[in-house]
């Protein structure tokens, strides 16, 4: 069984930026805290997951289809700090120096690119893809909807950048009370304030969880709404905000049809050690050079 690791690079750099203190390179004066955190996470991923193949997905600066269909999408989030923007740009240099290929697509977020890679890889069902395990590395819980049995799992950060957990289908069920595929339906009801997804106002996490456990999907819920045992108040909220529920589900759904064509890299993954050491030296990451030797030796 070979392992394909997919990096949600955008989510990882955001997590590193908020988890670590702000510091700058003595050599260049540029902000480097998030870059140090990202490098640390990548070394941990390589050491622990031992990927045969590894690919990174990034967001792009253009508006996505979500922004175009819903102007308020992510509007409540504060503007990104200048320091974070600089490090998001520089993060590509870090990933490339590791020898990791990058994929992105105008109009889509990084997790849509990952969803498309998972879809294309698992549906091929022949050749290399048949004996392949996919591990998605992200700090964003939205990608849990991409989990499939133990063929596609998520390696995510619980807090900081060191405390990690792997979610297979069983773990998702333990956490939510329903399977990965129902996560967008759940968000269609509960909403997601971090992305400004409204959901159905008046329905909280517990009610949303109970509804999804009982009905499985929004489609099934609305098909059986009139004859359900739900409270009258809840039925009225669902009837009045049906459009919001389905639109919120659409916003929360990771796309699997991004116009990219993914093939497994012809060569297995290998760290580009000289290039990475040179970049670590430039950024002042002297302590990471020794860890690099260990990662490569393992």
Structural write-up:
- The chain is α/β, with parallel strands linked by helices and 298 residues long.
- It has two domains: 2-177 and 255-297, Rossmann fold (3-Layer(aba) Sandwich), CATH 3.40.50; 180-252, DNA polymerase, domain 1.
- Helix content is 47%, strand content 11%.
- It contains 13 helices and six strands.
- The chain has helices spanning 9-19, 33-49, 65-69, 82-97, 110-124, 169-176, 183-190, 205-215, 218-223, 232-240, 242-252, 273-283, 286-297; strands at 2-8, 53-57, 102-103, 132-138, 152-159, 163-167.
- The chain has a six-stranded mixed β-sheet with strand order 3-2-1-4-5-6.
- Helix 1 packs across helix 4, helix 7 crosses helix 8 (205-215) and helix 7 (183-190) crosses helix 11.
- It is elongated, with a radius of gyration of 21 Å.
- The mean pLDDT is 88.
Write a compact overview of the structure shown.
This protein is 47% helix and 11% strand. The chain has 298 residues and is of the alpha/beta class.
Observed structural traits:
2 domains, Rossmann fold, 298 residues, alpha/beta, DNA polymerase, domain 1, single chain
Instruction: Give the tally of structural domains.
Output: 2
Shape: elongated
**Topology order in helix (H) and strand (E) letters:** EHHEHHEHEEEHHHHHHHH
Q: First CA to last CA: what distance?
A: 18 Å
Query: Averaging pLDDT over every residue, what do you get?
Result: 88
Name the CATH homologous superfamily of the largest domain: 5'-nuclease
Strand order of the largest sheet: 3-2-1-4-5-6
**CATH class label of the largest domain:** Alpha Beta
| Radius of gyration, in angstroms, nearest whole number | 21 Å
- Beta-strand portion reads 5-15%
Largest sheet: 6 strands, mixed
Helix content: 40-55%
What would the CATH topology of the largest domain be? Rossmann fold
How many helices does DSSP assign?
13
């Amino acid at each position: 069984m070979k392992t394909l690791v997919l990096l949600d690079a955008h989510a990882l750099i955001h997590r590193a930026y908020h988890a670590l203190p702000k510091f700058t390179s003595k050599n260049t004066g540029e902000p480097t805290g998030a870059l140090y955190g990202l490098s640390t996470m990548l070394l941990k991923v390589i050491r622990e997951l031992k990927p045969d193949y590894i690919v990174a997905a990034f967001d792009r600066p253009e508006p996505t289809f979500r922004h175009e269909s819903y102007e308020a999408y992510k509007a409540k989030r504060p503007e990104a700090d200048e320091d974070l923007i600089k490090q998001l740009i520089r993060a590509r240099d870090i990933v490339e120096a590791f020898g990791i290929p990058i994929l992105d697509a105008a109009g889509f977020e990084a997790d849509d690119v990952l969803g498309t890679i998972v879809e294309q890889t698992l549906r091929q069902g022949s050749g290399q893809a048949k004996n392949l395990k996919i591990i998605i590395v992200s700090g964003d819980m939205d990608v849990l909807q991409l989990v499939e049995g133990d063929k596609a799992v998520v390696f995510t950060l619980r807090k900081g950048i060191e405390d990690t957990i792997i979610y297979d289908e069983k773990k998702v069920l333990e956490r939510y009370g329903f399977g990965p595929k129902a996560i967008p339906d759940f968000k269609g009801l509960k909403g997601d304030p971090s992305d400004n997804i409204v959901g159905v106002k008046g329905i909280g996490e517990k009610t949303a969880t109970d509804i999804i456990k009982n009905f499985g999907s929004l489609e099934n819920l609305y098909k059986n709404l009139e004859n359900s045992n739900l409270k009258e108040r809840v039925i009225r909220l669902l009837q009045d905000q049906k459009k919001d529920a389905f639109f919120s589900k659409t916003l929360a759904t990771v796309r699997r049809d991004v116009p990219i064509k993914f093939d497994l890299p012809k060569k297995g993954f290998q760290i580009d050690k000289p290039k990475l050491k040179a970049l670590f030296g430039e950024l002042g990451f002297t302590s990471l050079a020794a860890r690099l030797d260990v990662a490569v030796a393992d």
